[in-house]
Amino acid sequence: MSRRNFIRNSGLVAAASAVSFPMLNIRSAGAAETVKVGILHSLTGTIAIAEKSVVDAEMLAIEEINKAGGVMGMRIEPVIEDGASDWPTFAEKARKLLERDKVAAVMGCYTSASRKAVLPVFEKLKGLLYYPTYYEGLEQSPNIMYTAQEATQSVIAAMEWLAKNKGKSFYMIGSDYIWPRTTIKIAKATLARLGGKLVGEGYYPLGHIEFSSEINKIKAAKPDVILNCVVGGSNVAFFKQLAAAGITGKSQTILSLAVSEEEVSGIGADNTVGTLTCMGYFESLKNPANDRFVKAFKAKYGANRVTGDTLACGYTSVYLWKLAAEKAKSFDVAKVVAASSGLEFDGPEGKVKFHTANHHLWKHARIGMFKPDGQVDMIHESPLIEPNPFPKL
Amino acid sequence: MTVDMFAMQAFTGLSIFTILMLMALGLAIVFGLMGVINMAHGELMAMGAYTSYGTALFFQKFMPSLMDAYVFVGIVLAFIVTSVFGFLLERGLIRFLYRRPLDTLLATWGLSLILQQVFRQFIDAKEVEVPTVSWLKGAWQVTEGIALPLSRLFIIVLAIVTAAVVYMILFRTRAGLRIRAVTQNRVMAGAAGIDTARVDALSFAFGCGLAGIAGSSFTMLASTGPTTGQQYIVDTFIVVVFGGVESLLGTISSAFLIGQMQSWFEFGLGGSMARASILALVIAVLYFRPNGLFAAKVRR
Within a 10 A sphere around the Cβ of B4, how many other Cβ atoms? Predict the structure, then answer.
């Protein structure tokens, strides 16, 4: 009997006769059969584009766990709150989830700005946040578990690979806020260490749609590599205008740090074909856990939906919390955090492992090339990289 | 700077000029002539873009052989859909709010949020892909170093044609005469036998239709999603206000000036700094000419 079956069966038995198995009633009477988990993402506003599907992936994980018997025999009861792409709203909703709903953990946030907004709330109210988005690093809160790539696992790894394989003159372009700015700062420091040359850089406001001047500059600078840290809808404009100006993945190395399979469905696969991306996860990864994940996701939400890095991380987050709670035999935040140290899980992206101290995951940096169907061909996979949110530059 | 570079930047300036002009023409009528602060104007552009998207899907499915022509059908349909919506909007909401600019501002801002959520809920929270037709892909290679993107050339032509049509309608037709009469002196125009309510509804619908055309053609350059309208609305208002409300020529010249500034500032300063500098300049100009560059003298 596998562990999963055991849990499911014991869950069923517990449901049928809760009284006769007192050892399964971890919580005192009343809250007996469910444990609340908060889901805090933007369902409305600008960032809903990215966050709505993360919610889908997290709900899928919760549904699977509940079907398999829940966590320590308890069903997970999701409490979904809308951060509305507005950072103060995120903080307010985080407080509501922790104070009123008394959730055991929260899966949430996408932008660094929203994470920075909820961080003091989680630290003050001793909550637990699983943050499933790749980010710039330079943070480590005792109340946050970071389940996606930080800088050393994405931009630094990508820069090293690019400098070795594609050339050493770089043009860097990004949206104008904390993530792209910090990421490009790290990229520049890495480039200096590798002996490369920066031939230009440009920042544009989020949502900007006119890139033709920058493209003219790129054409004049003739870089070996364009490092693209543009975020969100601007990418659609950037790629369409690059293609219209005759710069495509065929003739020019372009590596994007914020474009996954999900974004490609809006940009148009024929505009991204041949360009590169660096993520921890691609839908096209071949392993049993990913096959299961992709199949279940498409069965639940439709065959035309695609998965992507943040979706896989959101899905993994729920399971990591479940495993940690089971290991700790408690939903107490301090105990779950302690139990997370060194915790391993076979997720859609392969084996991941929490660092023993810094709350981040050991991850592969994967570089892939977009195919005409919008999926990714992996062309480089690093070994598991130790997370280091405060790298020496 | 090489000659090629200069030529490319000049073309970029021209392209941004026509894009801004196309964006602003509709608002120049709605806000400029009628005085309605329509915060949902951006969402009407998004509606035009979504109409193009729908047309593309239809052509892909039912007549793939005519796919290359969908772009024209898309533009015409976008005009029809948004102008019908604009007509209903004027009859259902805006006409109750004339002379109450603050209420109009709040009501249309609310409407823009509602429309965004409608797009998000019923179409897709993510951006949708509107295909660019094959004959507008790529660039016209004039010389070795000068390549002019075909989609931008198309928009330049479209913007000039649209501006010409708007000019003809306003200044060479009876309908245009009535619109101008109502704008300049509503009471007098009414006394002269013009059905002012009908003129209001039709000019509002026309302005909205122009937003639809703009939105539809911008799918070639930018994204189509629930918040697409927000990307356009600020620029659109800046162009109209900077040029001088109530002046079509002002709108066009202001689009030209801002387009050139954006092109050269972005080249010299980079994106975010260019944006800040343009806004600073606009503020400075409005300080000295509060009614914009070309303030028309209007009897109230």
Answer: 17
Is the Cβ of A375 closer than 8 Å to some Cβ of chain B? no
Q: What is the pLDDT of residues A340-366, one digit of tens each?
A: 999 999 999 999 999 999 999 999 999
pLDDT digits (tens, 9 = 90+) for B77-104: 999 999 999 999 999 998 898 888 889 9
Q: Classify residue A313: in a domain, yes or no.
A: yes
Best of B129, B132, B219 to mutate (most A CBs within 10 Å, chain A)? B129
Domain contains A264: yes
Task: Please list every residue in chain B whose beta carbon sits closer than 8 Å to the beta carbon of residue A208.
Answer: 231, 271, 275
Number of independent structural domains in chain A: 2
Q: Residue A32 is part of which domain span?
A: 3-150+285-364
**CA pair distance A121, A202, nearest whole angstrom:** 35
pTM of the model: 0.83
Q: Would you kindly state where each structural domain of chain B is located, as residue ranges?
A: 25-135+148-288
Q: Is the ipTM of this complex over 0.85?
A: no
Q: What b/e readout covers A54-84, taking b as 16+ CB neighbours within 10 angstroms? A: bbbbbbbbbebbbebbbbbbbbbbbbbbbbb
